Amino acid sequence: MSRDHHGPLVYDFEFKPEHFARRCQFVTRQSHDFAGQPFYCRYDRVSTSFSRTLAPELQDLIEIAIASYLADRFAPRRHPERSEQSAPISRRIRLSMPVRLPQLWKKRPAELLRDLMFFLAADEWEFEFTRPAAESTQPQQSYLLDVSPEREASVMLFSGGLDSYAGAVQQLRDAEQFHVLVSGYTHNRMAAEQAAQSKILFEGRRELGHHIAVPYGMPSKIAGIRLESSQRARGLVHLSIGALTALSLGKRCFSIYENGIGALNLPFDASQSGWEISRAVHPKTLGLMEELVSEITGAPFQIPTPFLFSTKAESLAGTEMVHYRHGISRTFSCDRFPNYRERRRQCGTCSSCVLRRLALETAGLTDAEPLAEYAYDISARDFVPNPNAAFVLDKFDAQSYRIRQCLDSEHPWLEFTRLFPELREVEFLLTKRQTGFADAEGRLLSLYARHVDEWNKFSGRTALQRYIYAA
After folding, report:
1. Residues near 78 by beta carbon (within 8 Å), at least 6 away in sequence
2. What region, left, alpha or beta, does residue 273 occupy, with left being phi > 0 and alpha being psi -120 to 50 degrees?
3. Is residue 265 part of a domain?
4. How far apart are CA 353 and CA 192, in angstroms?
């Protein structure tokens, strides 16, 4: 085999109910193949919470999502035999697994899964669905909690981030409904923060709703196997948990609260594309997920996004948020959460942390959390960013400048979509997906105009100037 690898890295995964195996089709040694990697997903917590038996197509959906997440994690984009030297390479992931309804998952659902995974992870995916073995098991449904809502239920995905916390504050204003906040988590630190936020939100009003936390992941990892860090398939797991919860309660929708800037996640420049951009709650992702769930259940399904035309700062507006501001410090936004290296909740310099600081400052909520929670305070007058932090700030600044030029032109939408061609598809999808999205073009232009205005007033911008002076 030559030193250079041409073409995608081909990974084959075979899943059993509680473990899976991997084969690499591009390596010189079989030491990169393995079998018996254990995994788990306690999605039975949804059924036991409401004394429901999950339909087989819903159990298949969440198990397919978990398998896709694990295949994504165990398929590194760098060649495993020379990962330190090689650049990221495209992948072809072939996944075989048993499902309860193999005939249902052929044709259109399989096509939708491939489209969804290609958009999320920018790779080719192939799915083979087989019949389960006779000894195949499913999670036990012991119905221990029995939280049976007597009122109309509403379901929202509760990630533990700042936007979902603000969305929960807003949603819980409606005392006529029983509000179900559902979370997925892969480590205990995340679970603890989600639980702490839930306690704050329901304190003194437990009758308003219930929080369900679904753990998933690996109890242990086979030694010597590298993992892919981007985790783009994780979004499919959380969307599936949301759909499973809603459908188990007889609902045909669940809400996601994510600001428009974060949901659309426009690239900073032309060099950033594909798997480098998170698309977990992008309108195209949600549209494909809606179609997939509708296809397997035989009835329309929707995923509303109430904050889509709001900036992150605007999602924090309102007197209710001021009343629950003490919960802001328990939310997490950092791309590296939990930040093990600096042992802080937020690193302060990744793009997600920068957007968080911008939102809190614009909304007048800077004092809602101790700045000691950040490894680096970009708004401090004596802070001089290192090259990596300066790079992120410069990307925000340059993007805002280019967007402002488009908005100030004679034909703003034409120039804006020339800069970001993907917005034409976004406009089409928003018009197609849901009612209430009239004049998507005008609303998108207004959203980014407000975002640019917020950025231009942000105190953290001056850190970039200090970096330039110090260079």
Report:
1. 86, 87, 88, 89, 226
2. beta
3. no
4. 20
DSSP readout, 339-372? BTTTTBSB-S-SHHHHHHHHHHHHTT-GGGS-GG
How far, in Å, CA of 440 to CA of 442, rounded?
6
Q: How far apart are CA 285 and CA 349, in angstroms?
A: 27
Taking alpha carbons only, the member of 383, 402, 144 closest to residue 268 is 402
Domain assignment of residue 300, yes or no: no
Nearest-CA neighbor of 60 among 164, 138, 112?
138
Number of domains in the chain: 1
Block mean pLDDT (10 aa), the chain, length 471 = 63 95 80 90 89 90 98 90 70 96 95 96 95 62 50 94 97 94 95 97 94 96 89 95 95 97 92 81 97 97 96 92 94 84 86 96 95 93 94 96 98 97 94 70 96 97 89 69
In a domain, 58, yes or no: no
Range of the domain at 395: 365-471
Q: Which residue has the tokens 């040694």?
A: 29
Is position 67 within any domain? Answer: no
Angle between helices 283-297 and 56-73 (to 10 degrees): 140
Decide: helix, strand or coil at residue 420.
coil
Query: With 0-12 CB in 10 A as exposed, 13-18 as middle and 19+ as buried, what is 21?
Result: middle
Query: Residues 236, 366: contact at Cβ < 8 Å?
Result: no
The answer to whether 38 and 19 have CB atoms below 8 angstroms apart is: yes
